[in-house]
């Protein structure tokens, strides 16, 4: 017995949605990395299978026919359902692979070694990520992420488990007026300029800049003329800005001309394990167990 729709080629459906999005076969072919004549033949195959014309070709490009407009939302839903079916099937299987992401200078070697010892047949990998990689978990490039909270991207669909905490320090030039002090407070920072990251969520930015201040005075912002963390360190060395970081962050110590000063009276940084909230993976629990089993305290703890 033939199952309705079972011979519909999802690859052709995907091609159709891309052409519909760009309304131009040439641009769609470039996005799909296929030759335009080949893309045209694939769309013709889909039209022959459906028995309707999906596009009207025009000198300016292509536009959906009435049948194409009716088919488009169904095609998008079909592709999404197929993608979700793949994810559901993978989630239902016993995990044989586990990828742990980590950012900045955080070290996870000890816990990973223990986890590999507990699961010698599993493929356990680590992946260093950019600090603001918002899609690593949702795109399933990693199954867990070790990072400093608050995260610089939305975390409403993530579960955060605290691993340890680190006090915070002020990073300044060795020639700065506060360099060499035993500690500073928020009141000492009133005139200091701090960088602001426009791409981070407000919660992260406020935490990194100690906002709002007790006196209600807005924090002075450094010009947005940096592209990387190393650029910001250069700005600090030039005394154009200062930074507030976790005490365990070793990167400023590797750059000459910088020093750190403890900041008193502020909340510490929480280092967390972030996972997808709707997913249960036994290797996540085992990783947490491995972490708590005599894991050496990181610097700054």
From TrEMBL:
<dbReference type="InterPro" id="IPR036390">
    <property type="entry name" value="WH_DNA-bd_sf"/>
</dbReference>
<dbReference type="Pfam" id="PF03466">
    <property type="entry name" value="LysR_substrate"/>
</dbReference>
<keyword id="KW-0804">Transcription</keyword>
<dbReference type="Pfam" id="PF00126">
    <property type="entry name" value="HTH_1"/>
</dbReference>
<protein>
    <submittedName>
        <fullName>LysR family transcriptional regulator</fullName>
    </submittedName>
</protein>
<dbReference type="InterPro" id="IPR036388">
    <property type="entry name" value="WH-like_DNA-bd_sf"/>
</dbReference>
<keyword id="KW-0238">DNA-binding</keyword>
<dbReference type="InterPro" id="IPR005119">
    <property type="entry name" value="LysR_subst-bd"/>
</dbReference>
<comment type="similarity">
    <text>Belongs to the LysR transcriptional regulatory family.</text>
</comment>
<feature type="domain" description="HTH lysR-type">
    <location>
        <begin position="8"/>
        <end position="65"/>
    </location>
</feature>
<dbReference type="InterPro" id="IPR000847">
    <property type="entry name" value="LysR_HTH_N"/>
</dbReference>
<keyword id="KW-0805">Transcription regulation</keyword>
């Amino acid at each position: 017995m033939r199952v309705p729709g079972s011979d519909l080629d999802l690859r052709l459906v995907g091609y159709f949605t891309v052409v519909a999005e760009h309304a131009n076969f040439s641009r769609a072919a470039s996005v799909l990395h296929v030759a335009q004549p080949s893309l045209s033949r694939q769309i013709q195959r889909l039209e022959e299978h459906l028995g309707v014309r999906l596009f009207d070709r025009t000198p300016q490009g292509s536009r959906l026919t009435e049948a194409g407009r009716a088919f488009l939302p169904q095609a998008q839903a079909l592709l999404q359902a197929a993608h979700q079916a793949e994810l559901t099937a993978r989630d239902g299987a016993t995990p044989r692979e586990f990828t742990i992401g980590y950012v900045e200078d955080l070290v996870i070697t000890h816990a990973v070694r223990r986890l590999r010892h507990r699961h010698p047949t599993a493929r356990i990998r680590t992946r260093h990520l950019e600090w603001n990689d918002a899609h690593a978990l949702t795109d399933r490039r990693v199954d867990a992420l070790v990072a400093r909270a608050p995260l610089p991207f939305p975390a409403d669909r993530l579960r955060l488990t605290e691993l340890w905490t680190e006090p915070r320090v002020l990073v300044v030039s060795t020639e700065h007026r506060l360099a060499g002090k035993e500690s500073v407070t928020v009141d000492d920072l009133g005139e200091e300029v701090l960088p602001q990251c426009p791409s981070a969520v407000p919660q992260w930015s406020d935490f990194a800049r100690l906002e709002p201040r007790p006196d209600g005075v807005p924090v002075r912002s450094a010009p947005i003329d940096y592209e990387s963390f190393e650029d910001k360190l250069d700005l600090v060395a030039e005394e154009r800005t200062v930074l507030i970081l976790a005490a365990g962050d070793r990167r400023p110590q590797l750059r000459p001309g910088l020093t750190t000063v403890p900041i008193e009276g502020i909340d510490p940084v929480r280092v967390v394990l972030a996972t997808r909230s709707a997913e249960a993976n036994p290797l996540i629990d085992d990783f947490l167990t491995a972490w708590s089993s005599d894991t050496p305290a990181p610097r700054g703890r």
